[in-house]
Amino acid sequence: MQAARAPTRSVPLFLDFFYKLRAHGVSVSAHNWLALLDALAQGLHEDSLDGFYAVARCILVDDETDYDGFDLAFGEVFRGLVTNLEHLAAQLDEWLRDPKQLLELDPATQALLQELGIDELRRQLLERLEQQKGRHEGGNRWVGTGGTSPFGSGGVNPSGIRLGQGGGRSALAVADARRFRELRKDLVLDTRQMGMALRRLRKLDRKGELVELDIDETVDATARNCGDLEIVMRPPRKNDVRVLLLLDVGGSMDPHAELSSRLFSAAAQHGGFKEFKHYYFHNCVYSKVYEDALFSKPVAIEQLIRSAGPNWYLIFVGDAWMHPGELMMTSSTFWSLDNAPSGLRCLAKLADHFPRAAWLNPESERMWEAPTINQIRRLVSMFPLTLAGLEAMVGHMRLPASPARRAHISRVLREGE
Amino acid sequence: MKRIASSDRYIVSDELAKAVDVAIAIGRPLLLKGEPGTGKTLLAVDLAKQLDAPLIRWQVKSTTKAVEGLYHYDTVKRLHDSRFGDGEVADIAKYIELGPLGRAFEAEQRMVVLIDEIDKADLEFPNDLLHEIDAMSFTIPETGRTVTARQRPIVVITSNNEKELPDAFLRRCVFHWIAFPEREMMARIIAVHHPDIEDQLLAGALEAFYRLRRIDGLRKPPSTSELIDWIAALRHGAIDPAKLLGAGLPFLGVLLKKEQDVATAERTSAPGRGRA
How many domains is chain B partitioned into structurally? Predict the structure, then answer.
């Protein structure tokens, strides 16, 4: 019985599922896969699709943000299975005609069969299959209602999984409900999640002089040293991350104001940075940024560069969406014609001084091909303002800037001279 | 195989029950995540009761090191003994005490080990336990003794998502995320804790509770355990269920623990400005 379940026939199907999962960003390793096969060999899925769903999910997924990807992949693979049921219908038909097989059914199902009559049963089944075909996206209802239907007990499904084994919700219906959608990492996020992501920027380093007495180690070393005092010192543990946040409060950013303010409070409250400063700009950074969103307290970027060393992390938040002229313009106001550098040069200057810089863009990535956005992206790496984007940004900022980017930055700086 | 089922102390969802089965069957630790107060820790307690296995609880703190779970060498006691002439100082084994995992390995009986709030510890903590959890044995360098598990213990690990856990560690776990209970499930959970609650009070409390959770911008939305406490308070104070429907909830401090949240809740539930 156990051996019969060993999934030789089901391997191609499972493999398909495996790659579908990976396509949906669920990082399944071979390690997990073997564990799943082990669990299936032990019959933990109880020969049902519902069981398989539960077993596969708890083994293959290791983060709740991947639950939705799992549901999507599951739906794609196993709905395919359900829509391919026509040949199954024929098989089932044959099976239903075979009186010997019918004897193996439990008394309740037999009674039900008798009540319905085989022809009626066949008619109902074909009807449901018809409905199934007719509904392109769905199909879950069929399986969903299948839970109480006598069809499910056939067990002729190519994967060896019985459909709708009576009662219970169907796994496909569960998967289709996409209950975990809001946990996805690529959706916008709340303050706490943002804070958690930003916290990963922290580097808790033991740095500098050995000035702190490590009491635990001292006691231990002393005791091991037969009681002769052995002092153990260590450098203090400090979070050495300083963050400079530049926020766009331009008109096109209005729809994203809420999101930006969440990011701001996340960085200010949950980030736990050693130092945190923020300034505002309008559309593009020119030679000045502002301490307040009303643009009444200007700070020259030269001053910014003087006051914050290259070890600061620089994060821009904005849609980077502007008229090309604006990027090349020398000042944020059309009228002041003092000989200031263009927006692009100002950005390059900042990017040059702060090698660890990134741009968070609340617009969807589809929009990023616009010429101005592209120009900016060549200077500063751009990430979507989502949890996944923040995480990618954190990862990016911990690495040194790429030489190609640095070369481009200095080219832009030279051109302006 | 013995399945975990809902008991008179704890309500378990089908999916969670399946995850528990899988973890036991394939011999991997069960990693539970979810909002605070969704009963992650209670699951381990109840699982131990249902399996009739002793529970060893290892509460992780920010300073906890992985080796503490295995054993502890009490050097100070040994030093004390050597100075004041008590006991057999030459025998180091006497000063080795096994930690929670170590005790579970040595036990004759199968144990349930709860590693609670693993995310509180240092980032490297989970990685340092990988080998021991895989191989189910470890060696104590001070004495050269190898402790090998006689019975593979059932390891339940909880995390509040304060820190990311390393991939290598996650790969070895069976994972389940406890979703916040829906109203129907919540009613069952409350029935476990307050078996003789009046229907009206239950309905009123649930209504008020989910209304509160729907408010945008709460820093710490109230959790299941807070709801259970709140209901206890309501019953103790013999509060009329009708009072739960309007603004100004009684004993709000049991549900909301942050000042700003109380202010937010009062603002949104003020008459005339309430949300539908």
Answer: 2
Q: How far is B73 from chain A, CA to nearest CA, in Å? A: 9
Query: What pLDDT digit, counting tens, does each position of A172-198 carry?
Result: 676 777 777 666 655 555 666 677 777
Evaluate whether residue A192 is within a structural domain.
no
Q: By the 8 A CB rule, do A247 and A315 touch? A: no
- Alpha-carbon distance of B11 to B14, in angstroms, equals 10
Task: Please judge whether B18 and A200 are an interchain contact, meaning their C-beta atoms are less than 8 angstroms apart.
Answer: no
- The larger pLDDT score, comparing residue A43 to residue A398, is at A43
Interface contact A227-B171, CB threshold 8 A: no
The closest of A128, A24, A136, A125 to A69, measured between CA atoms, is A24
How many C-alpha atoms does B259 have within 13 Å on its Cβ side?
0
**Range list of H helices, A151-240:** 171-177, 191-199, 215-224
Decide if A397 is inside a domain: yes
To probe the interface with B, which of A2, A62, A225 has the most B CB atoms within 10 Å? A62
Residues constituting chain B: 276
Residue A259: band (very low, low, confident or very high) from pLDDT cuts 50, 70, 90: confident
Q: Contact B18/A58, CB-based, under 8 Å? A: yes
Contacts of A58 in chain B (CB under 8 A): 15, 18-19, 22-23, 174-176
CB contact under 8 A, B19 and A223: no
Instruction: Count chain A–chain B contacts defined by CB atoms under 8 A.
Output: 72
Tell me: do A260 and A386 sit in the same domain: yes
Q: Is residue A200 part of a domain?
A: no
Q: Are B171 and A64 inside 8 Å of each other by CB?
A: no
pTM score, whole prediction: 0.66
Structure confidence by residue, pLDDT tens digits, A121-137: 556 655 655 554 433 33
Contact A61 B175 (CB under 8 A): yes
Distances (CA, A) of B212 to A20, A262, A403, B22, B36: 39, 21, 52, 36, 16
CA distance A367 to A321: 9
The whole-number pLDDT of residue B155 equals 94
